[in-house]
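Figure-free illustration: sequence to structure, shown twice.
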Amino acid sequence: MNAKSKNLNFALSLKSIIFLLIALVAAIITLYICIKPVISELAYRKAYFISEYSLKQKKYFSRYKYAIEEYEKATRNYPWETHYTVMMNKDIERYLNVIEDPNEKLGLINKALSSYSVVQQLDPVNPWYFSRISALQNRLAFQLRDEQPQFAKETIKKASINTRKAAQIDYENPIFLENYANLLNFNKRYTEALYYYKKCTQIDKNYYTAYMKMADIYISLKHYDLALSALENAQNRIVKNLKLPKTHKIYKKSEKFKDINYQILKLLIKMKDLDKALIYFNDHHKDPHTTIKFSGLGGYLFYLLDDYRKSYILLDYFYSRSEDDIYVQLYTDLLLQVNSDDQIIEKLSRILTFKTLSADNKAYVLNKLSHYQ
């Protein structure tokens, strides 16, 4: 009886040891699986910090390579999380705007394209991947346009296909539709481009960039009334966005189009509707978002209206803040009529310092100046 009890106790102890070993192995495996995402997240955060620092501090820009290493570490440890690869590739596109070495650029473009091919195996129908691959392929084609023109041409075709795929997969997303419309526009397929730009505005009435591009097409086709309507629709959205705080993301994007008043006034002059242009100028020249270009164009408008005094005042104001030589000859002729010799010499001499001054305008100013020296 005692022998049996001892054997039973020994058998139970052996089972316990086996169970403990299994539990220990399971715990180690579980811990390893749990730690991997943590390691990945820490690597990703480190990569993000290095990346932002290198982009903000130009002298440390070369450190972006360490950021890529950390991004790749994050991806290796947790390959199912495609976010790490996507963020790395987004930063690579930012680096490309800074890097000047063409070989270095090519290396990064190919790295990003290669990593996108991996994440597409995990998510083959994500339209964002097709969209970003298209952007990178366009960059690649641009880099190789001289050395490998045939390859560049084939790459552009691939980029076009990916742009179209993104629009087909998510046909209710105005971003992808606009990208496809841009492609059609570039290839001078204006009717099709207009269709997709219009669809963008139907999906999102505040999608002002589509209105702006529609206006460009209408102007090229000399459909000025339609262009004016598109610009006015864009203006309503842009002005609303420009009232947001300057740190707001939407404000920063809209700020690129803050010369919308200039664009509308320019179109009204092109349409030779000077009465409406005058009303528009008077209504908008004090708008807080109005750019200096609007004043210069206003000077040209008043010249067309034979109001030379106001034309000179506006152009003088324009050239006190700008070196755009578009109105130099007109401004020169006007200032000769209202200034003393000393003022004429001073103002014309200043114009000659403009870095953007064309050869023709420089010769014109020098000729006029020679009469006062």
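We now fold a second protein in the same way, so the two outputs can be compared directly.
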Amino acid sequence: MKKNILFIVLLIFGSINLFAQEDKTYKSLEEALKTPDQVFSLDIRNKDLIKLPADIKKFKNLKYLSISNTQITELPKEIGLLSNLVDLDLRMNQIKSLPKTIGKLKNLRIIKLTNSKITGFPESFGDLTSLEYLQITITDLAGLPKSIGKLKKLKSINISTSKLTGLPESIGDLTNLEELMLGGNKITVLPKSVGNLANLKILFLTDNELTVLPSSVGNLKKLKELNINNNQFKNLPETIGKLSSLRDLSAGGNALILLPEQLTDLNQLTKLDLGANQLKTLPTLFGNLSNLYDLNLYGNQLQALPESFGNLTNLQDLTLSGNKLGSLPESFGNLTHLRTLYLDKNQLKMLPESFGNLNSLGSVRLSKNQLQALPESIGNLTKLGGLYLSENQLTKLPESIGKLKNLSNVELSENLLKREEMQRLLTILPECNWSFE
């Protein structure tokens, strides 16, 4: 009986000691090599290392290895003997390639290569069958091996600010992928197989050289965020309307001339950025995007808004600066949740009377238009704090402006106001900061 109790006690203390060792992170390679079997975590970042010794193979139980911010230019082939390695941090190094033996790390789940000199991967990279997270940003990476399609457990790929020009067709085999971040590369074409990424939730393609989005992208039923800013798109595929889970679409900084009507089927969309394109019109049923709360149409060539625009009743932030709008539809007054409104740099000569219904507005920018008067209803905007009206043709403001007790800043420079009108405004709202010059 006593022997059994002693055995149990020893077993418990042995387990505690093991857990204690697993929690310890060794900071010195020399210290770790004294008891290699007890090393589970090794962090030798920020050292003056220029070479990783072959003795690295002695760490049979190693799960975490960081050699970030060192002068190492290559990994020894013995790295492949670390069969229990789970997390490999190779950030901020001079490493240009990985040894073929990297593919033997069957338990590796995370690899980070941010800010390194890596240019490519061996085909054996596809043998990392447990890999879930791949982070390779700010590198010289120019391509991916076809074998990447074998990494069936991959959930996240981040290859940003590198030199990728394309993706292998096998990328479509990564059916568990949830995030694909490829911003800041030189990608010109996407393979059709990208439409096979059935579990993809986030797709970032900003700052590339893409001209066409494959129609197969419409198959990405779980996609929630799509960012294609700053490419060379002239149009979007009609199938984009099939992205039934899409909440955030960013397509600014392209050369879009026309939007497909099917875009208005994205009834889950809450944020839409179409700024800095060449749009002259919006789809007739644009108002069907009734869940939008943030809409950016800055820097296009819009001359009018469809009457259905007033159906965007959940809008809170709206940017229409830098277009050619000559008027607003009467339905514009239905946007009663609007908090910030940018309408500067247009050709507006008047505002609809319904403008006064925008009673949630906190700030409105109307500078650089052709406004000759404001509607009397503007006095209903009791939450308004900032009103920017410089470079218009205003000779006076309506009497109702005096009701805006929360108004703290008004810009009226380069208008046609006479001194008497300026004095009147200073009198009715003396605590407001009026700028006439």
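Summary for the second example: The first strand starts at residue 25 and ends at 26.
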